[in-house]
Q: What sequence folds into this?
């Protein structure tokens, strides 16, 4: 062992012990007769010093050579410090070095190894191994480990079995695009990397495993939006002989356990909200309920006058911004510009100030009188001092626009507190979703989701109205998990696939094994999958996942550190019977 | 919840409780007035009965419809049995059913769902979800879960952090062939699936993570030998600021913990054996030391006569087979046939009977007298009643042949006891290995392995003699783990890559990121990786890994259940800019 102690553990009680430490040079302060070195490892920082009066000339000279990030080993005596540093756990002591070995030199790092670094995102990703030395990244990775350990131990204690499912599987157009892997041994054929272990976990239920989980990498070849990764990690779970209520209770238990153990937060029973209500009240299927600002639908109180913008709209809807009446005209204009940005896409915004004296002042006073506006305030829950923001248009679009505005304003108002946790079940999702481009319905969750009892018949007449036994777990405005009760009989699965546009032939080729399995005694079953990257980030009080992933890829799906992907050798392509067709 | 209890938990103390159970029909015994049903789930089997005197006619009729593997839900009263079954935990009770619901019917399964099934390997793999219902497979998967939980908790308690490394990386000719993944977003470029997270775990050490582990899937596109899988699982570990001794002690601790917790076996300090000694004494770098039968090298006592077969051999080597003198001539002839099979490849075998009266009788009595043979017995440790088997030829080949014979005989003699555990460290592996086909040396472990201190200089003059800081952990004749202290400076890594035939350009293209990282303060580090599939199988007392993998592939790398790999759609190939070239 190169060391007797880590850089995080020595205290005043260790005074006068001879110790050996290893680590990286965080910084050097050379006062001539005294040289101070901060030595850093994963566990902390310990101050070393070299003293002209007590050390060899050669040792002083060696110490003078030290540069930032040099890897060294030192032996010395623990001394109680005269002036203690209360900011670090080892601040009571320092080490008078008697022996120094440079284990490895270091070039000057391209950015500072400090909590607030001068390195930009690109540089940090290229030198990710240096970025990981920084506390915020290092602590995020350690935090992720703690969360996964808690998850595994909790689920294991509940009789869940972690089962590894294969990575080399079959390509199925289950939603997103698959990454594929050419098979050398099976000419002209390809494996696919799993988008999720969905079918395998269902087969494990058919196989009687009863309670399954797996923390597992999944892959989707999507055009990457910000903060998405082509490979991501799921906590994948499935249970047999359960109804939706059992799944909700079980995984509410897991989430409550994590909030308690990881964040020290006690949360009561999670509220539940119907999907339709979430859309109506928050314009969004993953509402952040840490704050109010619920939508007020204003059609009834805003379409009775001559304001054509509202009259021609499918939906007129507003929110009350707490204290928003203090916004200047300029600030409100900026807000209007914000909702008109192409990313939001509103055509404009109507507003109404709620004055302290109980009067109202709106941007559409020409059309609406004080009584009208009072009703707006009533419907949106606005109080004196608030600002009512109103959007209008096609229902789905205007809800999304107002939801974006609501989140933006909450962010600005500091209502999205990272240390406050508001979990929420959103239930009764629609089974199908209309693809506006193609006019076809596709599965909102996936093709294995069970419709609500008795609603199968609606598939033909009113496909958009069929509700599913599907649910999402939402935390602070993020979907952290989603799942459903599955279909477990061949006939229903066949009907579903037919409605999703599969020919009998395609259904058999792609999901024949699953439908066959349903004929050999499939139990009722259901499950859920959590997005681990996001769950960990949110528990860690962050909104972006990148620092919780050791080696993330950029938005082009590249690992800029190892420079992947990369061209293949000609021989490799030949062995795989492939030709590039660029 | 569909059930109040599982099929494994009811006892006499539950008598008279009304319970609801779910599960699969293991079997039905219809006695006309009484129908008995064994109901099975993951947790056990509970006996149900329907009684003409106590049940509706309709219930009796419904029960008569039940077939094997039907999924049912029953409600009824727990009764203490008149004649108890001591062979199952629930054998004291049975359930008088008052309500029966068939949750799902089942076709007759293609093989029996019993510990000893009538299904062949191929059929079991096609219907793996049924195979998993069988206790031996189900228990193996649960056992695997227990082992991984123990590993994770042990390592976490020792401050190891599990860090997920990426699956979409860069192809490097690090040993075996890579599986590759075409990138749609980066035209003409490919990711590779990791053969191991080797370079990433080293970068984590450069990044200061100090102690890393990961239970992780790895991929090798090899022509599959029996009991190999294209995807397999490793317990991958790395530590910084350590020497070989620290790694051996740490992971000896882990292995001892597993043997204790999983198998209830206490094992003393693991013996260590030099690689050279393992080859000399067992002809093998992973000796099974649960039994003796060490090699005796006979050159000195067998090359002094006119027997040209021995005189022209590089090595004459024998083993004593305990009690082998009882073999008939016919049995010995069969043994000779066995070593001459192409899989073993010996040209022949000389033998010597050690008679109870102290005399010897050999197949080469023409050349060797009793004194000669007494020396053979001395060197091989043969006692009266034993049989000495002697092979000769080129050293490496003859060692491999005799090792195969030793293992075969031990198997036949029942010396390879599955409940006996003999771990062993094999250390001081050669750094390089001669590829006899190409005449080139390649890395025996991998290109990142550190040579023993001071031996770098031998690379030019005697490359085959350079020893590495590399070690394997062997358990019962199987390599369960292997690792090394790594190179951690750019200059040494460059020398190694040069000796392995990499041009400067190739070295930079493939490992430039690692060598760059070594310039920014890389600590001394080393690690080990365990083959989880095999480790679990051996701890479970098995030699084959297949039942410890939920969904294994066959020897052509196919998943016969889902029928993968499979052809891709033309559109998918086009999107990837690929053409088949068959």
A:
């Amino acid at each position: 062992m190169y060391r007797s102690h880590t850089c995080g553990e020595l205290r005043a009680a260790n005074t006068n012990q001879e110790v050996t430490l290893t680590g990286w040079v965080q910084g050097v302060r050379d006062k001539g007769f005294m040289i101070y070195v901060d030595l850093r490892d994963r566990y902390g920082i310990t101050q070393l010093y070299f003293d002209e009066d007590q050390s060899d000339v050669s040792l002083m000279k060696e110490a003078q050579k030290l540069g930032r990030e040099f890897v060294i080993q030192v032996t010395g005596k623990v001394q109680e410090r005269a002036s203690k540093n209360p900011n670090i756990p080892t601040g009571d002591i320092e080490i008078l070095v008697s022996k120094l070995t440079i284990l490895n030199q270091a070039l000057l790092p391209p950015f500072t190894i400090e909590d607030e670094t001068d390195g930009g995102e690109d540089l940090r990703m290229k030198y990710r191994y240096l970025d990981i030395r920084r506390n915020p990244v290092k602590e995020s990775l350690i935090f992720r480990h703690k969360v996964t350990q808690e998850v595994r131990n909790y689920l294991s204690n509940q009789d869940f079995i972690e089962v590894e499912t294969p990575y080399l599987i079959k390509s199925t157009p289950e939603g997103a695009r698959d990454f594929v892997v050419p098979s050398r041994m099976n000419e002209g054929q390809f494996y696919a990397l799993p988008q999720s272990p969905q079918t395998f976990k269902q087969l494990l239920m058919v196989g009687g495993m009863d309670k399954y989980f797996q923390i597992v990498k999944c892959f989707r070849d999507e055009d990457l939006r910000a903060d998405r990764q082509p490979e991501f990690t799921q906590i994948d779970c499935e249970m047999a002989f359960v109804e939706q209520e059992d799944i909700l209770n079980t995984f509410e238990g897991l989430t409550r356990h994590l909030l308690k153990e990881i964040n020290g937060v006690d949360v009561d029973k999670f509220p539940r909200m119907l999907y339709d209500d979430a859309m109506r009240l928050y314009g969004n299927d993953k509402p952040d309920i840490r704050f109010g600002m619920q939508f007020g639908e204003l059609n009834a109180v805003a379409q009775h006058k001559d304001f054509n913008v509202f009259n021609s709209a499918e939906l007129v809807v507003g929110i009350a911004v707490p204290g928003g009446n203090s916004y200047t005209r300029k600030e409100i204009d900026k807000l209007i510009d914000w909702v008109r940005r192409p990313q939001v896409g509103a055509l404009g915004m109507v507003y109404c100030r709620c004055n302290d004296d109980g009067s109202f002042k709106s941007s559409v006073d020409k059309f609406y009188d004080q009584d009208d506006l009072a009703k707006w305030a009533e419907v949106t829950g606005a109080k004196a001092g608030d600002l009512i923001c109103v959007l209008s248009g096609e229902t789905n679009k205007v809800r999304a626009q107002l939801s974006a505005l609501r989140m933006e304003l909450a962010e600005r108002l500091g209502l999205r507190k990272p240390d406050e946790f508001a979990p929420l079940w959103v239930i009764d999702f629609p089974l199908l979703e209309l693809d506006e481009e193609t006019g076809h319905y596709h599965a909102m969750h996936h093709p294995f989701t069970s419709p609500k009892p008795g609603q199968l018949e609606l598939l033909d007449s009113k496909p958009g109205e069929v509700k599913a036994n599907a649910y999402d777990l939402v935390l602070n405005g993020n979907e952290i998990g989603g799942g459903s009760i599955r279909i477990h009989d061949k006939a229903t699965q066949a009907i579903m696939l037919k409605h999703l546009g599969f020919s009998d032939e395609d259904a058999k080729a792609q999901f024949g094994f699953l439908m066959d399995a349903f004929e050999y005694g499939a139990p009722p079953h259901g499950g859920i999958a959590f997005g681990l990257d996001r769950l960990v980030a949110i528990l860690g009080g962050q909104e972006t996942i990148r620092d919780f992933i050791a080696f993330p890829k950029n938005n082009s799906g590249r690992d800029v550190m190892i420079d992947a992907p990369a061209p293949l050798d000609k021989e490799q392509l030949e062995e795989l019977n492939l030709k590039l067709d660029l």
